[in-house]
Amino acid sequence: MHFSRFSPVRFAHLPTPLEPLPGLTEHLTRDTGQGPALWIKRDDCTGLAGGGNKTRKLEFLLGDALANDADTLVTQGAIQSNHVRQTAAAAARFGMKCEIILEARTGSNAQDYNRSGNVLLDELLGARLRTVPGGTDMNQELAKVAAEVADAGGRPSVIPGGGSNSIGALGYAECALEMVAQANEMGLEIDRIVTATGSAGTHAGLVAGLAVMGADIPVLGIGVRAPKDVQEANVFRLALETAALLGHADRVTRDMVVANCDYVGAGYGLIDAAVIDALKTIARTDAILLDPVYTGKAMKGLIALAQSGEFDGETVVFLHTGGAQGLFGYQTELEGHLG
C-alpha cells in the first residue's frame, strides 16, 4: 500500500507500542485458567496534545487541507470530544485557525463536563468554540460555519466528526500495516483486534487495510453509540470507500465488518458501573488509563466477552484510541466510585 501518494503530513509519534497486558490477562484467567492472551496497541501515544487515534487520521486530513490552501479547520464533536482536541492541536501546529462546533449530546449540565477535560484543552489550543443543542444537524452546522469563514475571507477545510471519511480512515489502513509488521517482527500471531467503534473511521480503516494487504485478522468493534445494524452499515460503507482509494475495493466483504453494540448502556457519553469497573480494572492491573466514552465501553465489552468464554485461547489486541483527557470531564460521576 502506497500511502505517500496521498501527501500526508507527518507529526504522529509512530510506530506506537504493541505490548502485552499481563495484569489483565492474569485477572481474566485466574479462576478458570482459560481466556485470551491480551495485548494492547498504544494509540494513546501518538503524541499530538495528549495523543489518540485521531492523530493518524489528521496526518492525511491535514495533508489534504494544506494541499487545498486552507487556513482554517472546521469540525464538530460532542462536548468532551477527543477528535476536537486533536484537530485544535493540529491547527495550532500548522498555524491555522480552528472553528469548533460542540454538540451537547449527553444533556449534562455538570460544570466539569462542560468546562474541564477536553474543553479546557480546546480553549488552551486557541480554538474558537460554539455549542449547539443535542440532536442538531451537525453537517448543516459545519456547512454554515464554513460559509461564515469563507464570507470573512478565510479558506475553510471541513473535517467531519471523528475525522471519519475515506481520507481520514487511511490513517487506520496504515495502522493495520504497522501493526501486522510489528507482530511479524515479534513472532506474534494475532487472532483478533478489538476496538471502540463510533464515527466508524478507525474500524473501517483497519478493515480496509487488513483486507487490502490480505491479512486474515478479524476486527471486532465494540459500539459506543449506534445500534448494530446501523453501525455495521456505516463501517462497511466507509471501509469500501477507503479500500477504493487504495485501489482494491473488491477485497472488502460484508462479513469482515462485525460490531457488538450490547455495551452502549444508556447512550453515548453516559457511563455506568460496568464502565467504571473497566476503567479501574485496567488501571490497577496494567496502569493503563482509558476514557469513559470510547475505550472504557470497549474494555467493558472486552472483559464481559472474555468472561463469557468468547476469546478463549485467542491472542487479542485491544486498540487503545486514547482520550484519557476526558476523564476530568467526568470527575463528578467518578467520585465515590473509585474505592
Labels describing this entry:
339 residues, alpha/beta, Rossmann fold, 2 domains, four-stranded parallel β-sheet, globular
Short description:
The protein has 339 residues and is α/β, with parallel strands linked by helices. It has helices at 22-29, 54-67, 82-93, 111-115, 118-124, 138-151, 166-186, 201-213, 228-245, 273-286, 295-307, 331-334, and strands at 18-20, 37-42, 72-78, 97-104, 128-133, 156-158, 192-197, 219-223, 257-260, 315-320.
Molecular structure report:
With 339 residues, the protein is of the alpha/beta class. The protein folds into 2 domains: 3-52 and 165-334, Rossmann fold; 66-163, Rossmann fold (3-Layer(aba) Sandwich), CATH 3.40.50. The chain has 12 helices and 10 strands. The strands form 2 sheets. The chain has a 6-stranded mixed sheet with strand order 1-2-10-7-8-9, with helices on both faces. Strands 5-4-3-6 form a 4-stranded parallel sheet, sandwiched between helices. Helix 7 (166-186) crosses helix 9. The longest helix has 21 residues, at 166-186. The chain is globular, with a radius of gyration of 19 Å.
